[in-house]
Amino acid sequence: MTAMLLCFMFSAVSLVLLHSSSASRVIFMPFPITSQAYIHVQMARAMMDRGHQVWLVVPDIMVDKNVLNTTGISVIQFHTGYSIEDDIVDELFLKSYLAEESMPFSVLCERYHVIAHNILSNEKLFQQMKAVHADLFVFDDNGFIAKMFVVFPYRLEIPFACVDFSFEPFDRRTAFSPATVPAFRSELNQHMTLPERLKNTLLFLFQLMYRPPWHYEDVVARYAPEMPYVSLDRLVARAELWLVHLDPVVFYPYPTLPNVKYIGSMAAAPPDPLESRFQSFMDNAKDGAVVVTFGSMVKNMPQNITDKLISAFLKLRPLKVVFRFDVTSPDPEQIMTSSWLPQNALLAHRNCRVFVTHCGKSGVYQGVYHGVPMLGLPLFFDQHENAHIMQAKGFGTTRDIRKISDQELADTIKHLIEDPHYKQNITKASTLFRELNGVPVKSAAYWLDHVMKYGGDYMRSSGQEMPLYQFLLLDVLGIIGGTVVVLLMLLICCLKYLCRRFCKTKFKRE
């Protein structure tokens, strides 16, 4: 008996040691806004389920507001100087759009510069990361300051993976054709006319040449002077893996490479249980409920917009409405208002009939995942493009929140419920999405785990090691172009010589 007990204890200890030896340390650093941080929290939890230790790097203001459930996750805080959600999105983007005014671009650049500098020059933050002894660094590779976060894994000399939300062929060195792939925010589809192909090609050329003024091209020289210099684009191209929030069901098929995984959105997942107040409200919505939210970044709206929305919701009786906004409901029995909503769980409820959304990518994917027709009221960033594609796919329709009346808004919501085509289209898309992608965050965790175990070199293209001018064959085209020019010049010289000889001979004969 004693021998059996000792054998059992030895086996248990062996299993623990085996598990701990396979566990790795992963740092997640999202673009510092709540919606992006939520995605990284989901990834972190999925990695914890696989036995890994995780750290989340987020702004102190986000921690102070307690907007993320980071239970069990080690959190590293930093100071940004400005809040992207309050001082940039709300104050600059949202107010400018709703007032139909041009955005103060110089103010935007100045604030992005401050945020980028405060993060990248934060030596205390770097030392905290260094103390983790991480095996992998995961960050958002988007067109804003987050792309420059690559300086941290470079200084730490550890592999890194990127999370992105769009098709970006140049950093990833992906071959593609502008004839079939719409440029980011072009609001084009895959079937383009000649003028649209011309527009799309010019947009990709602009994307290739444009560098946001808040990007430091000398980011390595400036913030990692102890490391060999490399340009920002070539450094990002060294990623072991890209996890991209796109897929062919909700968006379009995109060309790709083995280390670029199109997984859909990690926000699309089976729901958590609803809190009792939400559960009771949705259960009592026998005629159906409408979920309305403009995301975590929209905290304020002009009074006329808010009044218009509330007026439209009152016209929807007997439908009930759950509205994410900090405003007093005129009829709590019909309209439930809250500063926070469990969006994914509400969309999964059997009584949810329509999703009124700003068309953030996570929201669109959650709407498709749960098969809920959508009314898009886009505000800024990529939301207009997402709304355009959502409408083109037949998942719903889109309107301009500034121009639509309360009656038109109510009628549009009713139309989405009464026309069966929207529900049929999005139900089919939901089935396809689940069949192809399963639970996207689990796929993300699988691939992160995979590159930590085996590395990602075998998936990398040689193009990802090249300077961009070599990948685009600009040097080859230059040689060919130069050769053609030289040959044309020689031909012209020969023709001139022959003409002179011919004319001279003819003149002598005469």
TrEMBL record:
Bilayer topology term: Single-pass membrane protein
Gene Ontology MF terms in the entry: glucuronosyltransferase activity
Membrane-spanning ranges: 468-499
Pfam family, one: UDPGT
Gene Ontology cellular component annotations, sorted alphabetically: membrane
Keyword terms of this UniProt record: Glycosyltransferase, Membrane, Signal, Transferase, Transmembrane, Transmembrane helix
Catalyzed reactions per annotation: glucuronate acceptor + UDP-alpha-D-glucuronate = acceptor beta-D-glucuronoside + UDP + H(+)
Subcellular location: Membrane
InterPro entries for this protein: UDP-glycosyltransferase, UDP_glucos_trans, UDP_glycos_trans_CS
Record-linked Gene3D superfamilies: Glycogen Phosphorylase B
Broad class of the protein's primary localization: membrane
UniProt-listed Enzyme Commission number(s): 2.4.1.17
Signal peptide residue numbers: 1-23
PANTHER family associated with the record: EG:EG0003.4 PROTEIN-RELATED, FI06409P-RELATED
Family: Belongs to the UDP-glycosyltransferase family.
Protein name: UDP-glucuronosyltransferase
Organism, as annotated: Littorina saxatilis
